[in-house]
Structure formats: structure tokens, C-alpha cells
Amino acid sequence: MAGIGFELRKLLARDSYTGLLGAYGYAGLASSGPWVVSIGGVLAIGLLAKGAVEPAYRVTQFLVSITWLMACSLILTGPLQLLFARFVADRIYEERRERILPNLLGALQVTTLVSGVLASLLVFPSFDESLSCRALLVANFVVLCDGWVLVVLLSGVKAYKTVAGLFLAAYLVSVGAAAALRPFGLDGLLAGFLLGQAAALFGMLALVVRAFPGEKRVDFDFLDPRLAHYDLAAVGAIFYLGVWADKAVFWLNPSTSAQVVGPLRYSVIYDLPLFFAYLSAIPAMAAFFLRLEADFADRCQSFFESVRAGAPLHQLEEIKRGMVDCVRRGLIEIVKVQGVALVVVFAAGPAMLRAAGISPLYLRLLYIDVAAVSLQVLFLAVLNVLFYLDQRKTALILSAIFAAGNLALTLLTQRLGPGWYGFGFAASALIAWAVGLPILSRKLERLERDTFMLQPLWPEARRASGDGKPILLRQGVRT
Prior knowledge:
This protein is mostly helical. It has 15 helices and 4 strands. The strands form 2 sheets. A two-stranded antiparallel sheet has the order 1-2. The longest helix is centred in the last third of the chain and has 43 residues, at about 315-355. The protein is globular. The model is unreliable at about 460-479 (pLDDT under 50).
């Protein structure tokens, strides 16, 4: 999120409640804004279509279809998101920004081709809906996949209000188009959603092209083993599989789900309480994002710049202590903020379920899910700091622990019965966080030692680029 720390520090420098609230709002917008806007847009389409689309089950089919499209598009593009993000970061470090746009076009070409072929092979034979409906499902999937790739570069645009406004405008287009086309049933709702997603896609592409000018050619250097970090691709794949593992288990089990459209299923007993639980985590995510970007990122950059500049050991140790304090304060703030969210949900939970038309029998599951999401936010905090420290193997191991635990423990809780639903997700997040926290503590404690001891004795000064030309690399630690 290059540059956003400066904006957050500028707001905090006002030393007033207005500045503090503005900083938290800005952090919430950057960390959760697009997600909240997208979910809000989908729900708005569903509410507008309710009572206006016949038969009524078409609205449920739309909501479930979009949920599956988002889940599958994230899982498919997860490996490329982190792989491409690191490629872009390295090119910015090398001051070779002109190579970003050609490789972005290459990444979009690969994504469009792979997602289009896979979706066509799965959707057209598996669904009994009209040809136009199946084509719209494929088109929405391709546009979502391309969008996730572009989101990687939006942090480098440094126009966060513009990005948030773009997402808001795109989903207003979705809502308006879906409302106008709702007489056409499921086809109309999917077409309206597609128009909004396409608007967001081309808007993001315009912002990125302006921020990263370059030749309009197609390159695939981001796949070059000499430049790519394929361990990050593995982290992306495993992490997203872990995030959706418990949902998939409930969707694919006939006893906890219902078929809606084609092979797609959803679980009323699990999905809605979990949705409310994720909404409760937005303040905690904003709090940690504020601490991470306004404080930790700056200290992390200062540490490695001091290493390259040959600063004395006592200065490195002082900066490191500041980094440790930032992480500690960030985790404490998550606990505090999420603790307040837990109290609010426990107090307002029955009213929330009544307002949503959900049976009070789901109240216990709502409480469990809120606790589980709180633990997942703590795990994500640890994972984010590890990424800053370039601990890719550790991040991969923790993601694998979370994914395997979420799948295995959710299957176990289904065998144990409804009284155990939700505990698999909560336990897997707790295990991943409990394993990751002491590892992170050791990494930070030995940061200056590992920074020097893990460097090669004779580092290469040059490395071949994707076009075969040598690139002069800066000596010392690369972040």
C-alpha cells in the first residue's frame, strides 16, 4: 500500500479527535472499502429484485451464483495475485516501472484465457439454464478474475479516494442496471451485475495505465523463474483454499445445504451468521491497518535503509524495538476493538437476526462465528507482518496449517452435529495464530542477526532480466 502511510500519518498529526476518526475511516476504506461496497451492491440488487422478479427463487439463485463466482475467482487468481504483486514491487525497486504495464497486459491475457476456458468447460455442460444465462455466468467469472489482478496494482496508484469512488460508482451502475433489467429474471440480474463489474474493470485499467505508463505490448516476464517467487503463488493458492474450506464443506454437504441453480448449493444455517460475523471484523481490520501502515511500515523501511547505509548496531536495535512495539500495539488494538464488537454482537445479536428474518436458533452459531472471525483477524495480522519481513516460507507453512485445519476440523464438527458447527473454523484460526505468534516473535527478536547472517558472502551484482539484459542490483538487503 505504497504511500497510504503518509496520508494516515498526516491525519494523525492533527492531534485531534477529527484527525483520529479520519485516520480510522481512511484505514477502513483502504482495508475493507471495496469489499463492503461490493457486498452492499450485491445485497442491494437482491433487495430491489425481491418481489419484482418472478419466480421469487431467481433472486436466491442470483445471490448464490455471485457468491460462488467470487469464491472461485479468488481461489483461481490467488496464486497470481501475490506472484504478480511481488514482481511489480521488484520492478519498482529496480526503478524499471516501464516493464509493469506490458506484464500487466500479459497477466490479464493469461487470466482471461484460463478463466474463460475453465468456466466454459464447467458451466455449459453443468447448468440447465438458458444459453444466455450460462454465457453471463462465464462472462462475470472472467471479469471478476481480471478485476482481482488489477486490484493488486491499485495500491500503487496512490489515489485511494478515487479508487473507492470508482468501486462505489461501479456498483451503483450494477444496482441501476440490475433494477432496469430485473423483468428479464436471473438473466437480467446477472447482466446488470456484469455491466457494473465491467465498468469497474475498465476504470481500474485506466487508473493503472496512467500510474504506470509503458509500451502497449504483452510480456510474460512475471512467469520467468529468475524473476518470479513461486512460493508466493503457493501461499496465495493455499490461503484462499483455507479461507473458503469451511464454507465449501457446508455447501457441498446435502444435509447442511440446498441446491439452488445447476450444481451450486448454499447453506442457510451457516452462510448468514458468518456474513454478519465478517461485518463485525471491519473495525478491527481498520485498527490494525492503521497501525501497520502508519507506523510499522515506516519503521520497517527505516531499518533496511539503515542496514544499507551501514548504520551502527545500536541504531538498528533501536529501530527494531520500535517495530516490535508497533506489532504489539497493533495486536492489542485488535483485541480491544474486536472485544467491543463481540459485546455489541452479543447484545444486539437477537435483534440483528430478527431484522434479517433469521431464526433465533442461529444465535449460538453467530456468537461462535464472531469469535472465529476475531481469531482470523489476529492470524491475518501475523501473516501481514511476516510478508513485510519477506518470510515467505513461514507464511506458506502457516497458511497450510490454517487451510488443513479448517478443512479437517469443519468435517469433524459436521460429524459431531449442529451443536459443534463453527468450532472448526474457530479452532483452525486459533491454531494458526497460536503457532504463528511465537514464530513472529522469534523472527523479530533475531531480525538484525538474520539480516546479516543470511546474506551471501559474495552477492551477485548483476542478474539477467527477462529480455536477457543484465540489471544492476543494489548491494545489501532487498525488501
